[in-house]
What does this fold into?
Amino acid sequence: MARPHTSWRCQQCGHAEPRWVGRCPQCGEYGTFVEEAAPVAAPGPSGVTASPQPVTALADVSVEEEFRFSTGIGEFDTVLGGGLVRGSVVLIGGEPGIGKSTLLLQAAGSLGHRGVEVLYVCGEESAQQVRSRADRVGAANGISLLPEVDVSVIEATVLAEKPAVVVVDSIQTLFDPGLDGVPGSVGQVRATAARLVRLAKSHGTTVIVVGHVTKEGSIAGPRVLEHVVDTVLYFEGASDHMFRIVRAVKNRFGSVSEAGIFEMTGSGLAEVAQPSAALLAGRDGGVSGSVVMATMEGTRPLLVEVQALVTPSYLQMPRRLAVGVETPRVLQDMAILERRAGISLGSHDVYVSVVGGVRVSEPAVDLPLALAIASALKNRPVGDGVVVFGELGLTGDVRGVPHAEARMREATRMGFGDVLAPASAASAGGSARFVGVRTLAEAVERTLG
Ligand code: TYD
Ligand code: MG
It folds into this structure.
């Protein structure tokens, strides 16, 4: 069979070549060429080859009932914005080993259990491996398995079997026989994804695609797919930690501020009903360098412990190490501590970490972080039973943050008697004793002074 014509196009400037070249002769960029199917029909004299179609008024388009259906996994439904949408394409990205296959097999099992037909396409593991994992997570019934990597075979199977949901694990193993390039290359990933999207849209099949991201940044990974799919979820959390957080980063059918919290157990991923309690279990409130913070995970408040260790440095360049918070934020908070609260850290190594593998990237971590560092340096505990949140301005002022009320409610619910927060949050109410602070110096004075 003759291969369809393809061309190679620079993803930087759009220049096309008949074969792959390492450096674009037009814009000079390296490694930007991607194989594409060449247009087939030669345009007619007027340049128009297709016949016109009748158009429909948007208001006349019918919206099907049961547009959305539950996966049976509450946390997964939450991130999806209330369940799977028929005919949508969901991409689940994350590092290898984080739990993508486990979650999808559990979701497939749960869907199968409710009578929704699921086709599980496994390109990465053998049928036996999938079966043994399914046994482990209790999901063997109601799932059809297709060990296949050729996207045309997958298409044909879906058309014949008509499942409601297709799970593809993973996009990096698929290939389009019409194109050059090994599975996992940008060209193959884009082409196979485009065919899956077309399949979903034309037949109303819901497609869930796994995409691996590497620690070094993605090679032909989910990033190139983000704009072709409807929903992008990312799996976060160090694989050696208890918690796995699934976050929505794009959702055409829901909010992106949602997150699902799971825990990896011996029998698959378990939903964490009381994440604050689990994260704070085993905490010793009476030690220095430990501060409980109220952060937001999507629209839900979560209490996490921020820890700091400050030791005299024997290095010319004292060490600053951060786990779970961004290093630039730590450096900035240290600079504010030094300049605005008179706490000198120049001859000390500083280590900070958020316990439990949670990543906190919101500004509300500033005040808890600064207090944890000050507490560690002074070797004085901040006090048991106090929850802290607040952003720090460069002048040392404590600034308001969103969702103050939800944070305070969570503190009260978890039995914390005091809340140390921006003075502006006073109006948010809550039954915990509220201590409003205006500056970092004031916060240090009140907790450690
Ligand atoms: P996996 O879901 O295969 O990750 P991914 O598909 O994202 O690459 O596996 C995640 C890890 O979880 C793996 O190291 C094994 C572990 N695991 C458990 O601890 N308990 C279980 O029940 C299962 C199925 C996996
Ligand atoms: Mg996997």
Summary: Residues 186-203 form the longest helix (18 residues). DSSP finds ten helices and 23 strands in the chain.
